[in-house]
Amino acid sequence: MIRNTVEESRERLVALALLLQSATPQRPLTQETIVAELLIDEYPVKASGPRKVRAYQGGEVATRQKFERDKAKIRELGMQIETVVLGDGSVGYWVDADAMYAPPLALSEAEQRVVGLALRLCGFGRSGAFSLFDEGPAPDNGLEFSNYFNPVLRALRLGRVLAFDYQSSANKLRVVEPLAVRVINGATYLVARVRGTAEVKGYRMTRITSMPVVRAETFESDEAIRAIAAAWRPEYARTLKPVDVVVETTADYATLLTREYPSAVAAAKKGGLREVGLSFDNLREALRFVVNAGARVRLVSPKILKTELAAWLGGVNRGAVPAMDGVRFDPVTTTDALGQALQLLHAVHLSGDGLRISELARRFDLSADVVRHVMDRLVSFEPMHGRYGFPAHVIKECDDWEHEAEDDSLYRAEYGGDTDATDLATLTWRELFELNIALREASRIYDAPEVHAAIDKIESVIGSQVRVENTVSEQLLDVVRSAIESGERIKIHYTPATAEESQERTIEPREIRVLNGHSYVRAFCLTRDAWRTFRVDRINDVVAKSPADEPRVADPVSNWLTAVGESGSDVVVVVEASSRWIFEPLPNAQWRALGDGRHAVRFRVADRSFLDHLMVQAGPGAVVATPEFADAGRALARQIRAAL
Question: Where are the domains of the chain?
Answer without folding.
Answer: 4-96+353-424, 477-558
